[in-house]
Write a structure and sequence with these properties.
The complex is a heterotrimer of chains A (519), B (420) and C (396).
Chain A: E1 3-14, E2 17-28, E3 32-36, H1 43-50, E4 58-63, E5 66-68, H2 73-78, E6 81-84, H3 96-101, E7 107-108, E8 112-113, H4 115-129, H5 144-157, E9 162-166, H6 174-189, E10 193-198, H7 201-207, E11 210-215, E12 218-223, H8 230-238, E13 256-266, E14 272-282, E15 286-290, H9 297-304, E16 310-317, E17 320-321, H10 327-332, E18 335-338, H11 342-346, H12 353-356, E19 368-369, E20 372-373, H13 375-388, H14 405-417, E21 423-427, H15 435-450, E22 454-458, H16 462-468, E23 471-476, E24 479-485, H17 491-498
Helix pairs in contact in A: 14-15
Chain B: H1 3-8, H2 10-35, E1 44-48, E2 62-65, H3 66-86, H4 92-111, E3 116-118, H5 119-145, H6 153-171, H7 174-198, H8 203-226, H9 230-233, E4 242-243, H10 253-257, E5 259-260, H11 262-280, H12 282-292, H13 294-299, H14 304-331, H15 342-352, H16 357-380, H17 386-401
Parallel strand pairs in B: 1-3
Antiparallel strand pairs in B: 1-2, 4-5
Helix pairs in contact in B: 2-3, 2-4, 3-4, 5-11, 5-14, 5-15, 5-16, 6-7, 6-8, 6-14, 7-8, 7-14, 11-12, 11-14, 12-14, 15-16, 15-17, 16-17
Chain C: H1 3-14, H2 22-46, H3 51-63, H4 66-79, H5 83-114, H6 122-139, H7 145-174, H8 178-198, H9 231-249, H10 251-261, H11 263-268, H12 273-300, H13 311-321, H14 326-350, H15 356-369, H16 371-377
Helix pairs in contact in C: 2-15, 3-5, 3-14, 4-5, 5-9, 5-12, 5-13, 5-14, 6-7, 6-8, 6-12, 6-13, 7-8, 7-12, 9-10, 9-14, 13-14, 13-15, 15-16
The chains are: A alpha/beta (519), B mainly alpha (420), C mainly alpha (396).
Chain lengths: 519, 420, 396
C-alpha cells in the first residue's frame, strides 16, 4: 500500500509559540488517518500548512512520492488536496452554486457566469456520493449539517482525492455524525484518502484506519485502532491519566431561581429564533441545554442576560420579573454569565488583567468612591483572584489579549464567581480549551452548584452536557423538545431530539408555530 | 414575515403604525396651515416642460391652480395618515414616498405661485447635480463590495478636479484633462489601498488623511500657482453638450438623459457596467465573496488582496471622473474646497442605495434634486434665507443616514483588514 | 526595577502611550514628524523656494530670533527696559497662543477616539462655540468680569456640545455613522454662520463680522500689546489634566474606554452604550467649543467668516499624534502651534504658502496611523506598538 501523502519534519513557529515541532505523518491511499490531539496541539496549524494557508519554517510535503511546494490553496487544489474547514468557509448571502463555483468560475459568452453548468455538476456529485443539496438554496437558510455537505461538494467539485476534514463532527448531532461517517465511507469506496482531525476519542476508534496523536506541537505516536482504547488515547493526547468522568454528588435542588415562561426572542436580523419556551432552573442544580449550535441557544442566553430584548413572554429571577430589565440590573440581581464568545463579550483584550477583573463591578465600592476609581483596591483584588483561580499571567498589568485561551477563560470565571451570585449562566464554557482548563472549569461549576447556585449550562458538546447536568433540556429551532432527567437518558435519544425528532414518533414542530404541549 | 409571527408581538408593529400615521397627518396639517393658508384662490403656477436650447419636441406647459393643489396634497397626506392609523399600510416605502411626494409638490406649487417654474430644467439639473454624487457613491460601492471603506473620496475628487483643469488648460485638450483626473484618482486610491492592505492602517484614518492631504495640496497649488496664472493654468473651458439624435427629441426624458456632456454619459455607463460586473461576472462574484467572507474566498484560491487593490483603484478612477465633473465638466476652473462635501454625500447615497450601483444612482438623484431645488428656490425668491436652502442637501443626508427608510446591511467584512 | 516602578510603567501602557519606556513611545511620533518635514522640504523645493531659508524662517517664526533675544536681555540687564525682551519673546508667545485652541480641539478628537467615535466635526463645533461665546460676549453688558467671562466660556462649550450631541445621538439611536454626520454638521455650521454673520449677529459696517465682545468677557492677557498670550493657555492645560483624570481615574472614564475598546463586552458588563456615545460626543463638542471660545475671548475678540479654517482636521492629526492621551495631545498641540505660527513667517519671508503645513500634517497622520511605514523606513526593530482600533465600519 502506497502513501499518497507524507509530511516530513514540518516545523512552524509563531511569535512565542512553537506550533509544530518536526512533525512527520503519512496517509495511506484509500484510508482514513485520524489526527488526534486536544485543542492547541497544533493539528489545525499543520493542516493549514498542508493547504498552503501558512508557510512552514522547515520540513517538506510529499504528494504521491513527489516533493511539492505549496504556496497557497491553488497549489493544494492543483495537487488534489481539498479541505473542509472547522468553521465553514461559505458565504452566507450566496447560493450553494455560487459558493461552489467561486474561484473556478466557468463562463458563457466569454464574460458571464455560467451558473446552470455548475448546478448540473453539483447534482451529479450529489447523486454520486449521496450528498443531497439544493444548488439554488442560499447558505444562510441551510442547517449546519447541509452546509457541511456543501463544503464537501466544494472539495469534490475541484476533483480532490485527498480530503482533510477539520473537526467535522463538532457541530453535528449523533445521528448526523452517523450520516457523515456513511459519506466518508462512500468517499473511501470511490478511492479518496482522508485525514480526519478531531479531539473525540470514540469517533477515532469508530472510523479511523490509522491514528496519529499530537501533543504540544509534537507527534506523540501512531497507533492502530485495534490496539487502542479510549484510556490509552486520552493519556497519549494529554500526557497523563485523564479523569474522563466529572465526579459529583447527586444534586439537591431547592426552590426555583430562574423561571422562563413562553419566551419568544428575535435575533439581530429580526428572525424569530427563540420560539416560545418555558423552563425553570432551581437552586443547587445544573440544567443543561443541549442542541446543535444555532437553534436559539445564543439568543436565549442573550435574552436572559438582558442583551437582547424579548418579543414576548416572561422571565422571573427569584420570583421577580426581569424581562424588561437592563443587563446591569440583571447582573446586580446576582446573575453571572460566562459568555459563548469570550473574546467578543467576556473580555476587553486591550485592557490589563486587573481592569478585566472588575469589568462588572468597577463602579461599586470598594472599587470606586463616588466616581473615583480606587486603583489600589483594584490591584489587590486582581492579585488575590489571580492566585485563587490559578490564572497563569506574568502580572496583573499585562493585557488579557496576551494570555492563553484557558487563562482568559479563568479570568472570566474569577470575575464572575467573585461576586455574590444566585444564577450562573455558562455558555460553551470550555470551547477551544485544553483538557487541564476544562477539568478546572467543570469542577468550579459543580462547586458553585453545591454551594446552592442555580446553573444554566448551554453547550453543543453532548459529553459536557451529560457530564455536568442534573436535568437536560434539548433545543431545536427555538423550541424545547423535552426536558429530561440526566440519569435517565442516553446519547442516541438526545441526538434524535436534537435533530427535531420525537422518539415516540411525534412529528417535529413546524417552524414559526407554537408547539401544543412540550412537557 | 408570517402572520403567526406578527400576532406574537402587536405592540412594536402598532407603535410603528401610529408613528407613521401621525407623521403623515402632521405633514398634511403642515401643508394646509403653512402653504395652504398662504395662497389666494385663482392664482396659478406654471410648470414649464419646454426648455430653451434643447431639442425636445414642444409640449404644452403644465398649469395648476395653486390653492386647489395644495389642499389636495394636504388631503392626500391626511387621508393616508388616517388610513394608516386605522388599517395600516404594509410598505414603508409607500408611506415615505407619500410623505415626500405630497410635501415636495405642495411646496413647489406654493413656492412658485403666480410664477413659472421649469420642471424639465429642474429634472435635468437634478441629474447633472447628481453626477458627482453618483460617481462618489459608485466609488464607494465598488470599494466596499470588496470590504474596503474609502472615506477619502472627497480628497480624491478635489485633487482630480484640480488636475483635470490644470492639465486641460496646459494641453488645451479637455480629454487629456479627463484622463489625467482619472489617473490621479486611481493613484490616490492605490495609495489608500496600499496603506490599508499592506500596512493595515485604519481605513477611516487613511481616508481622513487623504482628505486632509487633498485639501492641503489643492489649496497650496491654488494659492501658489493658479491664482497668479489663471489664464494659463485655471481656465480650461468645459465639455460641450452632446445630443443623441432622435432620443433627444422625447419630451422631458430627452433633455434629461440624452442631451448632456460626456461626464454625465460616462456616469450612466458606469452604473450599468458596474451592475453587470458585480452580479453577472466571475470578477463580481469574487468581489462580493471577498467583501462578505474573505477567508472563504482565500481558501478557494482567490487572491483577496489583489481583488481589493483592483476594486479600490477602479473606485478611485471613478471618483477621479467625479472630480473632473467639478471643473472641466461644469465650470471650467478650480476653486478651493469646491467639492463642498459631495464626496461624503456620495457615501450616504451608497448606504441608502444598499451598496448596489443602481440603488446608489437613484439615491444620488434624490440628493441632486435637493441640490438643484435650492438653486431654483433662490431664483424664485422664496422667503427663506438662501443659507438655509443651501443646508438642504446636508440635512437630507443626515435624515437618510438615520435609516428611517429601511435599514441596509453592509458587506459583512466591510472595513476589516484581512490577515491570512 | 522595583515593584513600584514596574507598576508605574505598566499602568502607563494601559493608558495607551505605548509599551515600554517613554523614549520608545516617543520614537515613532518623532520620526513621523521628521519624515513629514523632510517630504515637506521636497514640496518647498518643488515650488521653487529655498528650503533652508524657509525652515530657518519657520524656526525664527516659532521660537524667536536669537539675536533679538540677546539684545533684549542685554537691554534688560543694562537699563531694566523690557520692551526689547518682550519683542524677542513675541514669536514664542504667539506659538503658545496658536497652540491653545489646538489643545482643546485635539482633546475633543482624542476623547472621541477613546470611545471609538471619530469626531471629524470639531471644525463646526469650534465655529458654533466661537459664535455662541461671542454672542454672550457682546450682547450682555454691565456684568462684572468674574460672571461674564465664565458665562461666555460656558456658552461656547454649550454651543459646541449641542453641535456634537446631534451626531452623537444619531449614532447611538440609529447607528448613523458619525464621520459623515459630523461632516454634514460642519457644512450646516458654515451655512448657519454665513447667515448669522450677514444678519442677526452682524456688527454695523460692511464686513460680515460680529461686534467686538465686552472687555468683561475677555480672557486676561499676561503681557501688554501686541503680545496676546492669555489665560486661555492655562485653561487649556487645566482642561487637559481634567480630561486625563476623567478618562483614567474615574468610573465614567473606565466606561468610555471600555465602550471604545470593545462595545460588546461593555454591553455585557452592563454599560450603557447609547448614553456613553451621546455623553462623549457632547463632551467632545464641548471641548471643541471651548477651543472656539478661547480663540474669541482670548485672541480675536470677534468672529468673522472662515473663522475656524482647518482646526477640525488639524485636531485629528493632533489626537493621532498624541495617541489619544491628553499629555500626548498637549505635546502635539505645542508642536503644531510652533509649526503654524512659524509658517506665517515662512510665508512672508520665504514665500512658501501656509498650506504646506496641511500637507505635512496629512503625511504625519499617515505615518502615525501606519507605524509600520516608519519602522520600515528607518529599519527599526522590536518596537512594540499597541494595535488600537480607532473606528468601526458603517454598522451600529
Amino acid at each position: 500500500m502506497t502513501n499518497v501523502l507524507e509530511l516530513r519534519g514540518i516545523t512552524k513557529r509563531f511569535p512565542g509559540v512553537l506550533a509544530n515541532d518536526h512533525i512527520d505523518i503519512s496517509l495511506r491511499e484509500g484510508k482514513i488517518l485520524a489526527l488526534l490531539g486536544e485543542n492547541g496541539a497544533g493539528k489545525s496549524t499543520l493542516m493549514n500548512i498542508l493547504y498552503g494557508l501558512y508557510k512552514p519554517d522547515e520540513g517538506k510535503i510529499i504528494v504521491r512520492g513527489e516533493e511539492v511546494d505549496i504556496h497557497g490553496p491553488n497549489d493544494a487544489i492543483a495537487r488534489g488536496i481539498g479541505m473542509v474547514h472547522q468553521h465553514f468557509m461559505l458565504v452566507p448571502v450566496m447560493t450553494v452554486t455560487e459558493n461552489v463555483m467561486l474561484g473556478v468560475e466557468p463562463v458563457k459568452n466569454g464574460l458571464f457566469l455560467d451558473k446552470a453548468k455548475v448546478a448540473a455538476r453539483i447534482r451529479e456529485i450529489s447523486d454520486q456520493y449521496g450528498l443531497e443539496v439544493d444548488p439554488d438554496a442560499y447558505i444562510k437558510d441551510l442547517p449546519v449539517g447541509i452546509q457541511q455537505r456543501v463544503e464537501i461538494i466544494k472539495v469534490l467539485y475541484r476533483s480532490a482525492d485527498i480530503l482533510i476534514l477539520d473537526e467535522p463532527t463538532a457541530v453535528l448531532t449523533p445521528q448526523e455524525v452517523e450520516g457523515l461517517f456513511k459519506i466518508i465511507r462512500s468517499l473511501i469506496e470511490k478511492g479518496k484518502s482522508i485525514i480526519f482531525i478531531t479531539h473525540k476519542l470514540k469517533e477515532v476508534l469508530k472510523i479511523a484506519d490509522d491514528i496519529t496523536v499530537l501533543r504540544l506541537g509534537k507527534v506523540v505516536g501512531s497507533i492502530s485502532p485495534q490496539d487502542a482504547t479510549p484510556e490509552i488515547l486520552a493519556s497519549m493526547m494529554v500526557g497523563r491519566e485523564v479523569n474522563l468522568v466529572v465526579t459529583k454528588q447527586p444534586a439537591q435542588p431547592k426552590e426555583a431561581v430562574l423561571e422562563v415562561k413562553d419566551l419568544y426572542v428575535r435575533d439581530e436580523r429580526q428572525n424569530l429564533t427563540v420560539n416560545g419556551i418555558s423552563f425553570d432552573v432551581r437552586k443547587g442544580e445544573v440544567l443543561g441545554i443541549a442542541g446543535v449550535q444555532g437553534n436559539g441557544q445564543t439568543e436565549l442566553v442573550y435574552a436572559l442576560t438582558g442583551l437582547l430584548p424579548i418579543e414576548s413572554g416572561e422571565i422571573h429571577l427569584l420570583g421577580e420579573p426581569v424581562h424588561r430589565n437592563t443587563p446591569r440590573n440583571i447582573l446586580e440581581r446576582g446573575v453571572a454569565h460566562i459568555p459563548e464568545d469570550r473574546q467578543r463579550h467576556g473580555l476587553i483584550l486591550s485592557f490589563p488583567v486587573h481592569d478585566n477583573l472588575v469589568l462588572c463591578t468597577y463602579y461599586k465600592p470598594p472599587f470606586a468612591k463616588g466616581i473615583n476609581l480606587q486603583e489600589k483596591v483594584i490591584y489587590e483584588n486582581a492579585e488575590a483572584l489571580v492566585k485563587q483561580f490559578d490564572v497563569r499571567t506574568p502580572s496583573i498589568f499585562v493585557n488579557v489579549g496576551g494570555l492563553s485561551g484557558g487563562n482568559q477563560q479563568k479570568v472570566i470565571v474569577a470575575r464572575e464567581f467573585s461576586r455574590p451570585i444566585q444564577l450562573l449562566i455558562a455558555s460553551q464554557p470550555t470551547r477551544g480549551l485544553d483538557v487541564g482548563s476544562i477539568e478546572y472549569i467543570h469542577s468550579q461549576i459543580i462547586q458553585k452548584r453545591d454551594e446552592g447556585t442555580g446553573v444554566l449550562l448551554v453547550s453543543s458538546e453532548l459529553d459536557e452536557i451529560l457530564a455536568l447536568s442534573d436535568r437536560i433540556a434539548v433545543m431545536y429551532k427555538g423550541h424545547i423538545m423535552d426536558i429530561l432527567d440526566a440519569n435517565k437518558v442516553n446519547k442516541e435519544y438526545l441526538g434524535l431530539l436534537m435533530a427535531g425528532v420525537h422518539p415516540e414518533g411525534a412529528p417535529a414542530p413546524a417552524e414559526g408555530t407554537v408547539p401544543e404541549k412540550v412537557f | 414575515m408570517t402572520t403567526a409571527e406578527i400576532a406574537i408581538n402587536p405592540t412594536r408593529v402598532r407603535r410603528a403604525r401610529i408613528a407613521y400615521g401621525s407623521v403623515l397627518i402632521g405633514v398634511g396639517l403642515f401643508i394646509f396651515f403653512v402653504f395652504g393658508l398662504n395662497t389666494q384662490p385663482g392664482v396659478q403656477t406654471t410648470f414649464g416642460i419646454n426648455l430653451a436650447g434643447f431639442n425636445a419636441l414642444p409640449v404644452p406647459d403644465l398649469v395648476v391652480p395653486v390653492q386647489l393643489t395644495v389642499y389636495l396634497m394636504a388631503g392626500i397626506a391626511v387621508f393616508f395618515g388616517a388610513f394608516q392609523l386605522a388599517r395600516g399600510i404594509k410598505s414603508t416605502g409607500t408611506l415615505v414616498g407619500v410623505i415626500a411626494a405630497t410635501f415636495v409638490i405642495a411646496f413647489l406649487v406654493w413656492a412658485a405661485q403666480g410664477k413659472s417654474f421649469n420642471l424639465t430644467g429642474m429634472i435635468n439639473s437634478s441629474l447633472v447635480r447628481a453626477t458627482p454624487i453618483a460617481l462618489a457613491a459608485l466609488c464607494g460601492v465598488i470599494s466596499e463590495r470588496s470590504a474596503v471603506i474609502n472615506i477619502g473620496i472627497e480628497g480624491i475628487m478635489l485633487l482630480s478636479a484640480q488636475t483635470a483643469v490644470v492639465t486641460a488648460s496646459l494641453t488645451d485638450n479637455l480629454y487629456a484633462g479627463l484622463i489625467a483626473a482619472i489617473l490621479v484618482g486611481g493613484l490616490l486610491a492605490a495609495f489608500h489601498a496600499y496603506l490599508v492592505i499592506r500596512f493595515k492602517v485604519d481605513q477611516i484614518v487613511s481616508g481622513v488623511a487623504i482628505n486632509i492631504f487633498g485639501t492641503g495640496l489643492t489649496s497650496f497649488v491654488s494659492s501658489r500657482f493658479l491664482e497668479k496664472n489663471t489664464d494659463l493654468l485655471n481656465n480650461s473651458g468645459v465639455f460641450p453638450v452632446i445630443s443623441i439624435p432622435v432620443l433627444d427629441r422625447i419630451p422631458i426624458l430627452g433633455p434629461m438623459l440624452f442631451q448632456n456632456n460626456i461626464v454625465v454619459y460616462l456616469m450612466l455607463l458606469v452604473v450599468v457596467v458596474m451592475h453587470i460586473m458585480l452580479f453577472y461576472t466571475p470578477w463580481g462574484l469574487r468581489t462580493r465573496a471577498v467583501g462578505e467572507h474573505p477567508k472563504a474566498a482565500d481558501t478557494l484560491g482567490v487572491n483577496v488582496y489583489l481583488v481589493r487593490y483592483i476594486n479600490v483603484i477602479l473606485g478611485g478612477m471613478i471618483a477621479g471622473l467625479g472630480g473632473a465633473y467639478f471643473t472641466i465638466g461644469s465650470v471650467g476652473r478650480f476653486d478651493e474646497i469646491m467639492t463642498a462635501g459631495k464626496g461624503f454625500i456620495g457615501l450616504a447615497a451608497m448606504i441608502f442605495g444598499k451598496w448596489n450601483p443602481i440603488g446608489a444612482f437613484t439615491s444620488s438623484l434624490i440628493f441632486g434634486f435637493a441640490d438643484s431645488l435650492q438653486v431654483k428656490l433662490q431664483i424664485l425668491r422664496v422667503p427663506i434665507p438662501s443659507e438655509f436652502l443651501l443646508m438642504a442637501p446636508y440635512i437630507v443626508t443626515m435624515i437618510v443616514l438615520t435609516g428611517v427608510v429601511g435599514r441596509a446591511i453592509p458587506p459583512a467584512a466591510d472595513g476589516q483588514p484581512y490577515e491570512k | 526595577m522595583t515593584e513600584k516602578d514596574s507598576t508605574k510603567t505598566k499602568t502607563k501602557s494601559s493608558e495607551g502611550i505605548g509599551g515600554g519606556t517613554l523614549r520608545e513611545a516617543l520614537r515613532v511620533p518623532a520620526l513621523a514628524v521628521l519624515t513629514g518635514l523632510l517630504i515637506g522640504a521636497i514640496a518647498i523645493v518643488a515650488s521653487g523656494s529655498n528650503v533652508f531659508e524657509a525652515y530657518y524662517a519657520l524656526f525664527v517664526g516659532s521660537f524667536g530670533d536669537p539675536v533679538r533675544f540677546y539684545n533684549g536681555f542685554q537691554q534688560f540687564f543694562s537699563t531694566g527696559e523690557t520692551s526689547g525682551l518682550l519683542r524677542a519673546i513675541y514669536p514664542f508667545t504667539e506659538s503658545l497662543v496658536t497652540a491653545t485652541p489646538y489643545i482643546f480641539a485635539g482633546l475633543s478628537v482624542a476623547l472621541g477616539f477613546r470611545c471609538g467615535l471619530f469626531n471629524i466635526g470639531a471644525e463646526g463645533q469650534f465655529f458654533i462655540g466661537a459664535l455662541t461665546s461671542a454672542f454672550v460676549g457682546y450682547s450682555i453688558t454691565g456684568l462684572p468680569a468674574f460672571i461674564h467671562l465664565p458665562l461666555a466660556i460656558l456658552a461656547g462649550m454649550a454651543g459646541g456640545a449641542l453641535w456634537g450631541t446631534i451626531p452623537g445621538y444619531l449614532k447611538a439611536r440609529f447607528g448613523a455613522h458619525e464621520v459623515v454626520n459630523t461632516i454634514m454638521m460642519n457644512w450646516i455650521a458654515f451655512r448657519l454662520s454665513d447667515w448669522l454673520l450677514n444678519g442677526p449677529m452682524k456688527a454695523s459696517g460692511f464686513r460680515p463680522v460680529t461686534p467686538n465682545i465686552e472687555h468683561t468677557a475677555e480672557l486676561p492677557r499676561f503681557f501688554p500689546d501686541p503680545l496676546r498670550l492669555n489665560w486661555g493657555f492655562i485653561l487649556a492645560l487645566v482642561v487637559a489634566y481634567i480630561v486625563y483624570w476623567f478618562l483614567f481615574k474615574t468610573t465614567l472614564g473606565f466606561e468610555i474606554r471600555s465602550v471604545g475598546a470593545n462595545p460588546d463586552a461593555a454591553r455585557y458588563a452592563g454599560m450603557n452604550i447609547i448614553r456613553n456615545f451621546v455623553m462623549v460626543m457632547a463632551l467632545a463638542g464641548g471641548l471643541a467649543g471651548l477651543a472656539g471660545a478661547s480663540q474669541v475671548l482670548g485672541v480675536d475678540h470677534w468672529v468673522g467668516q472662515g473663522f475656524s479654517a482647518g482646526y477640525g482636521f488639524d485636531a485629528i492629526a493632533l489626537a493621532l499624534l498624541g495617541k489619544s492621551h491628553p499629555a500626548g495631545v498637549v505635546l502635539a498641540a505645542l508642536l503644531f502651534g510652533f509649526l503654524r505660527s512659524g509658517a506665517t513667517r515662512m510665508q512672508s519671508i520665504a514665500g512658501v504658502p501656509i498650506d504646506i503645513i496641511s500637507i505635512i500634517q496629512g503625511l504625519v497622520i499617515v505615518f502615525i496611523a501606519a507605524p509600520d511605514i516608519i519602522r520600515w523606513l528607518y529599519r527599526l526593530k522590536n518596537i512594540k506598538v499597541e494595535e488600537t482600533v480607532l473606528t468601526r465600519g458603517w454598522g451600529s
